[in-house]
User: What shape does this take?
Amino acid sequence: PLRPRVLLIEDSVHYQNLVALLLGQQFPQLELHSAHDGIAGLALYGQLQPQVLLVDILLPGMDGAALVTSLRSQPLFAQSELIFITSLDEDQRGPYAFALDGLPVVHKLRLVNDLPPLLEAALQRLRERQASSVV
Assistant: This one.
């Protein structure tokens, strides 16, 4: 099978590197792509059609919430797993709650601890969907 593609949309090079390191160590089967802002992220999403999206909420140009809202209109998006990454505390996330509702959110300070299990769960859901769609 093809390697699952992960698209990270994150403007901080530090966190791009951290995620790349984490995935390289714990999820070597994944193919990671990165975009530095929402507009580039949208374009890459269309090209790659990634199975998993890791999206920072605060992005230059178009924030993660607006990005995800615009992706929801794409039919393929229903097949993608989405995990938000943010440096915002719970009480700072209010303006973005409409987009975050029901989705996993990882605080950047807890990235190394919290991202792997969320990613594992997302990959499990993808495997289950693939298994049920193969007749």
Observations:
- Residues 106 and 113 are 9 Å apart (CA to CA).
